[in-house]
Amino acid sequence: MRRNIMKNKLITVVSGLLVLCTPMLVFANTKQPESTQDEAMVNQSGKVQSVEQLQQQANKASVQAKQEVDKSQAGTNQGLTNEKVSLPKQVKVYDPVSKKSKTYPTETLFSGKRIPGVIGKDTRTRVTNTKAFPYRATGIIIATFGKDTFTCSGSYIDKNTVLTAAHCLYHPETKKYAKNIIFVPAATAASRGGMVAPYGTAKGTSFSFAQGWKKGNLNYDYGVITTNKPLGKKSGSFGIRPANKLKGSTVTAVGYPGDKKTFTMWKESGKVISETSRIMKYHMDTTGGQSGGPIFQYNKKYGYYALGVISHGIPDKYNAGTKLASKAYNAVKSWAVKD
């Protein structure tokens, strides 16, 4: 039996499997026939909204709300709390490409041993101060699919909207939606095990992802979560921008990998080696648990802005992220500003 307990600011995951959504393993499913309906967004109840419908709702939002989604917001960095998450004995790594899972003992997976997603020498560096901006806008996602509990990564893109990967929200092969979602910005490992949540934890009250992901098409591996608390006001948030021509440019990927010490944040910067209209490929190392983490850049006008999310990869060849292409950007922005 599995249950999530929230009491006196303590979250405990009781026995069973922790499923780490993972960006790796076999050739990406990005060449399926596509339709205009793939751009539509599906919510946690299966209701579909077209990008145009979302934009109509978003048009009612204030100019300030729209501008805040484009530009990064540093937040107040105040109201620090301590909340703790314990680990189960086993973890189950889910691969969004092959649609298969493999179980590992927790002590093995989190011991620093290599798992697919590292290309050559591991060149990631740990974010030791998770309360530094913009890293504090990145967090860990904990949720359930049926009887399994899993973790992914995500980032605030406004005060209560989290950008992540669609495979963190829906499994095409089981047709199950994520439930009991919790987002913890700036999470870090506690000295005696478990996790410290500097800004507290927030529940996911609703979410939406691109309808193309229901077919398992990784071109549409992006989604958003609305949280019940505006923790993004404290942690800050990334801006988002349309991802157009990225080949040769430098980007940074950040998240919570499963092959490192439990609940530690890691980052790496590198060049985009190739791209399609919806996918960017790179040699930055990303492993299970980092899925959904932001891939971002910086400039003076917009600050730190996400161009896509960590999604998948081919062992020892490349890793890849799903880009916020023009319609993806519009859909994600519309979802964020409509609330």
TrEMBL record:
Domain (Peptidase S1): residue spans on this chain: 118-339
GO biological process annotation, one example: proteolysis
Pfam families in UniProt: Trypsin
UniProt keyword annotation of DNA-binding present: no
EC category name: hydrolase
Keywords: Hydrolase, Protease, Serine protease, Signal
Region (Disordered): 33-82
Assigned protein family: Belongs to the peptidase S1B family.
Name the record gives this protein: Serine protease
Species this protein is from: Thermoflavimicrobium daqui
